[in-house]
Amino acid sequence: MLVYEAALSPFRIGNLELRNRIVRTAHGTGLTGDDLIAYHEARARGGVSLSILGVAGVHESTRTPDIPVHDDRVIGLYAELARRSHRHDMAVMQQLWHGGSAYQPRPRVPQWSSSEVVNPVVGTVPQAMDLEQIQEVVASFGAAARRVREGGLDGVEIHAAHSYLLGQFLSPGLNHRDDEYGGSLQNRLRIVREVLDAVRSAVGADFPVGVRLVGDELMAGGLTPDDCLAIAESLEPSVDFLDVSLGGYWSFPSMLGTAEFPLGYELPTSAPLTAAVRVPTIVSGRIMTLDHANDIVASGQADLVSMVRALIADPDLVVKARERREAEIRPCVGSNEGCEAGLLTGRFSCVVNVAAGREHRYSEPTIAPLSRSVVVVGGGVAGMEAARQEAVRGSTVTLYEQNRVLGGQLRIAASVPARADLATLTDWLQVELTRLGVEVRLNTPVDPELPELTRADHVIVATGSIPDTMTPLALMPASPVPGHRLPHVVTSWRALGFGGRRPEPTRAVVIDDTGSHEALTVAQGLLAGGAEVVVVSRADAPGAAIPAPIATIQHTIDELEHAGAELIGRHTVAHIDATDVTLRSRDGRRHRSIRADLVVLCSHPRPERGLAGELAAAGIHHTVIGDATGTTGVRWAMRTAFDASHSR
User: Could you say which of 124, 131, 155, 234 would form a disulfide bridge with 93 (CB–CB 3.0 to 4.6 Å)?
Assistant: First the structure.
């Protein structure tokens, strides 16, 4: 019997034969040229049946430099991408898009929309399109579709979701027009119908054409589930497939569901729509395992299942699952810090898969082998990944950890229910170390006189960092916080029950001095335990150092406030006494007191650099990675671990 029979069964969209039901819906990467091609080819090699390329702007007013579908020069890129994807039996489509008011305006280029409604993320008031401009954009969709077909790709998807231009026409909350493109649902649908007609005219009846819609706009006055169903049923006769998602710019986190969102969180809104239509359907929304995808197909919720971030984390997911090597699948931890935040801040990546976006240079099946002996000191994420990378390349590796378990600080964070997904990474790394034959020595402190250090070809120091209430806060560097020695003043580790009995406060103040996930995680843990929580940040808001907060921690912040947490920005701690915390504004001119029976100081941890210094003094070649370098976080740990093996 075929493993995952439903998910791995073939399927057809029109005359396009797909080898299985696992697809990748469109997502931006910002990658260009060979980087873009190698990224998609890796997923083709890994067993994906269809990849829909990320948004491509069809018109000069919304152009996308990475995929210039508004210009004939894109055809050569498509030809090479098609050639390299098809040889692995993966079909490729292009999502055609106009950003409307969700596209950052450029000088001398108008920002178009259905109406003059400000976009809450971009923060500009667009120009309401006139009839000539509407027809110009409609024609540009047709011209773009022609380029896709001429380039040898396998279909197109029209993006009419997520508050982009066509979605702005569809939404009653965003479309305030009083002409034939506004008012009734059929009028608001007019531009989408015209786009579909232009595209069909350009590519012919035998070329797959689909539409991406939402099941709910999640916006006051916007598209309701009933509206979305009516749109789908109205467009069904004109398309070869429907791709159903959720939300938009007025509910931005819902488009990018982080780890706090349930697995399959979009299905409750997409399933009623997919059940009502007969054309092939695609669903998405934190679907992380082939087992889950198989259940969706087998139960009839959809014909095809999109697994985007799971396949960023491990491009070989389908092959590994098909071969019953599920334990080898690298898990996505749902932080969005590499993929979504990376795209928004200028460099697409993946927190757990450092090779993502760099496949043509770094791919485990093709990297040059090593044959050396390596000692890794420290069994947190950085040390475990460094040991894994070395073992993958053929090194003989011994890992030393002074505690009785591996996982380091990530295991502490994963003890909080809202952050439990982090444990999948440490669990996977531990299984990988066993599979690859890494010798792990627990409960074993290391000093520079250990004979194995001098005999090793290379030593990797991953000794991490340790929090301390004596550490001065960033805005008060001269001395520790007054009151830091009081028994109810603790570190984040202690607050979560590591290093002593877990406190059970009634009212806690959490000081976020780092802007990282640390204070947010502690607050989530304390709230789950029933405490009242106040989070204080020296920045404008907690978590300020986390990139692209709208894509990474906005939902966390919303959930904290919903649970009753008070968030205070632009303040630091002036003094702590037995019952109160005195805060001082950043300008030093205002003070306020807050009652607390627990104070958690999330200050910058102290890097454990002692061993590295002693190795340097002894002339032992070594590389320092992870928190021991002075920079914290899973992304940094994984990146420095990867580079320790691949940069030489």
Answer: 155
Q: Which of 244, 213, 246 is nearest to 231 (CA)?
A: 213
Token pair belonging to 568: 């205070």
**Left (φ > 0), alpha (ψ -120 to 50) or beta: where does 159 sit?**
beta
CA distance linking residue 226 with residue 185, whole number of Å = 12
Confidence of residue 147 (pLDDT cuts 50, 70, 90): very high
H helix or E strand, kind and range, residue 84: helix 74-86
Averaged confidence pLDDT in the chain: 96
DSSP state of 543: T
What pLDDT does 364 receive? 55
Domain at 373-464+607-646, CATH class: alpha beta
8 Å CB contact between 122 and 102:
yes
- For residue 288, which of 303, 267, 309 has the smallest C-alpha distance? 309
Secondary structure in 3-state letters for 112-163: EECCCCCCCCCCCCCEECCHHHHHHHHHHHHHHHHHHHHCCCCCEEEECCCC
Burial (CB count <10 Å: 0-12, 13-18, 19+), residue 487: exposed
Q: Is the pLDDT of residue 611 over 80?
A: yes
SS3 for 173-220, per residue? CCCCCCCCCCCCHHHHCHHHHHHHHHHHHHHCCCCCEEEEEECCCCCC
Q: Specify burial of residue 588 (Cβ count, 10 A radius: 0-12, 13-18, 19+).
A: exposed
The active-site residue, picked from 78, 164, 181, 249, is 164
**Structure-block tokens of residue 542:** 């907690």
Q: HSE on the CB side for 397, CA within 13 Å?
A: 29
Q: Which residues contact 625 (CB under 8 A, 6 or more apart)?
A: 382, 383, 386, 460, 461, 462, 637, 640, 641, 643, 644
pLDDT tens digits along 473-492: 999 999 999 999 999 999 99
Separation CA 137–CA 98 (nearest Å):
8
Assigned superfamily of 11-345: Aldolase class I (3.20.20.70)
* pLDDT tens digits for range 321-377: 999 999 999 999 999 999 999 888 888 999 999 999 999 887 655 567 788 999 999
Q: What is the value of pTM for the model shown?
A: 0.96
CATH 3.50.50.60 fits 489-604, yes or no: yes
Check for a shared fold between 11-345 and 373-464+607-646.
no
Query: Cα torsion for 379, 383, 387, 389, to the nearest 10°?
Result: 140
536 strand-pairing partners: 511, 568
DSSP-derived secondary structure for 396-452: EEEEE-SSSSS-HHHHHHHTSGGGTTHHHHHHHHHHHHHHTT-EEE-S----TT-HH
Count, in order, helices (H) and strands (E) of the chain.
22, 27
Integer Cα distance of 59 and 518 in angstroms: 43
Phi, psi of 436 (to 5 degrees): -90, 0
Amino acid occupying residue 205: A
> Annotated catalytic, 164?
yes
Q: Which residue has the tokens 């108008």?
A: 110
Radius of gyration in angstroms for the set of CA atoms belonging to the chain, rounded to a whole number: 26
